[in-house]
Specification:
single chain, 19% strand, 4 helices, alpha+beta
């Protein structure tokens, strides 16, 4: 099976998930169904879910022209803070930092 990509959008942030195995596609399908059902997830939830399920994820901020500049600036600030937290979460994952988030999402 060849590698596939999936995108999850959270306001100005796009999460690019690398789906390398068939089981990753099923895992993404499950996450996507939960999002479409209206479950409230935050950036940290999405990131921790990917780490817990061993799905490689990359994030990118996108400036949205249809939003006020102040909203874009605030969202960019939140994105930068989250990026720093993601690095710490990835290192500490084995210590159970994401455990509460993962437990809630499974």
């Amino acid at each position: 099976m060849c590698m596939q990509w999936a995108v999850v959008e959270y306001y100005n942030v796009k999460f690019y998930l690398v789906l390398e195995r068939e089981e990753d596609i099923y895992k993404f399908w499950y996450l996507n169904n939960r999002i479409e059902a209206g479950e409230k997830l935050y950036m940290r939830d999405i990131y921790c879910w990917c780490i817990a399920h061993k799905i490689h994820v990359m994030t990118k901020f996108e400036y949205l022209k249809n939003m006020p500049i102040t909203a874009n600036i605030w969202n960019y600030y939140s994105y930068l803070r989250a990026k720093g937290e993601y690095k710490r979460l990835k290192r500490k994952y084995t210590e159970g930092v994401c455990f509460n988030t993962i437990k809630r999402l499974q």
